[in-house]
Amino acid sequence: MKKQQQLYKGSLNTIIMKLLEQQGKMYGYEITQKVKEITQGEMNITEGALYPALHKMEADGFLDVEMDRVDGRIRKYYKLTESGVKETVSRMEELENFIRNMQTIVNPNLKLDF
Amino acid sequence: MKLSAEQIKQVDEKLIDYGFTFMDQRLEILDHILCIVELKDHNTFEEAVTDVFIEQHEYLRIQKSLQWTNVIKQRAPLLKDIFMNPIFFVFWGLSFALYLLLPYNNYSELLTDWDIVPMALPIGAYIMYAYHLFVSKDKATSTFGVLFSTSFVNMFYLYIGIHLVRNLENLWSIVVLSFFTAITLMMYYLFFYYKSKNAKKFKLILNS
Predict the structure, then answer these.
(1) Do A67 and B205 touch (CB under 8 A)?
(2) Is this structure's pTM higher than 0.90?
(3) Are residues B47 and B79 part of one domain?
(4) Fewer CB within 10 Å, N or C, chain B?
(5) Domain check: are B100 and B188 in the same one?
(6) Which domain does B161 fall in, by range?
(7) pLDDT (tens digit, 9 = 90+) per residue, B157-206?
């Protein structure tokens, strides 16, 4: 499991961006839970990796921040900016190519339909 | 469990004690911790909080170590905040007038005594920033952006500007000297400007 997490590490930003593209806006804790839910607990994004990644993408201009008051406290929501949307498309293409190439190496007989 | 305003405040204070004194960063950490506390089914709120703080120790440790990285990363936009700011031109004009009013026979004598001003003036500002950095519990990281941006300009004065001023020895030297003096004065002005702007911003968010 530990080794598997290492493989996911390089795709963390792409995963976050894809989720934000689908959901519109999300807050940190929600992202960790959503990933856990989608992968049925197989993948676990640690908070220690998630927040620095979110802050980096915010600084790079890919994410925008919205503060809302929820249950008596402030919640910081992240959403994709215009350049973030373009970046998501490009990163997804990159990731799909990577998966396809890996598949060709690992199991050449199995065809993936992207 | 649904948390009351008093319980939220308790966790916020616990985070301050933990070392999270930058309000902009603490807001997100607070929400994250509270989300987990709400899901706990402990007998008491205190037990749940203690448990979550132990459980989230690694996350809190990383966030705490990143606080200072975030402060260092802050940069105020030099062009917009300083060079296009009307206050900068006021300071520049005033410094220029003050230097000319000083009772010296020539520029050379004046520069001998006063060319050090842009390097000496920031000392007070550094003390002010340091006091705010170490004492305030509700500061924002962006307040410190000015410190880094203006310090960069002051370093430029130390290595290049001061030699330029000394070599000119005419009215232009006073123009350049007052230009750098004005930048130093902006350190003081922008500190209060950003401090008040951030305080208003967070007050608005917290009371929304």
Answers:
(1) yes
(2) no
(3) no
(4) C
(5) yes
(6) 75-207
(7) 999 999 998 888 788 999 999 999 999 999 999 999 988 888 888 777 76
Which stretches of chain B are DSSP H helices?
5-18, 23-39, 45-55, 57-73, 86-101, 107-114, 117-120, 122-135, 145-156, 162-168, 171-207
Q: Which residue of A46, A47, A59 is in closest CB contact with B32? A: A47
The reply to whether B35 touches chain A by the CB within 8 Å rule is: yes
Same domain, B54 and B106: no
Residue among A47, A55, A73 whose CB faces B8 most closely: A73
Fold of A2-106: Arc Repressor Mutant, subunit A (1.10.10)
Of the candidates B28, B34, B59, the beta carbon closest to that of A48 is on B59
Say whether both B11 and B101 belong to one domain: no
CB-based contact, A34 to chain B, within 8 Å: no
Instruction: Extract the tokens encoding A66.
Output: 């919205």
- The tokens for A59 are 């600084």
Q: How far is the C-alpha of B115 from the C-alpha of B165, rounded, in Å?
A: 7
Tokens representing residue A20 in the block: 């934000």
Q: How many CB pairs under 8 A join A and B?
A: 53
Q: Does A73 touch chain B if contact means CB atoms closer than 8 Å?
A: yes
Which of these three, B71, B93, B114, is where a domain ends?
Answer: B71
In this complex, do A75 and B30 lie within 8 Å of one another by their Cβ atoms?
Answer: no
Are residues A69 and B208, on separate chains, in Cβ contact within 8 Å? yes
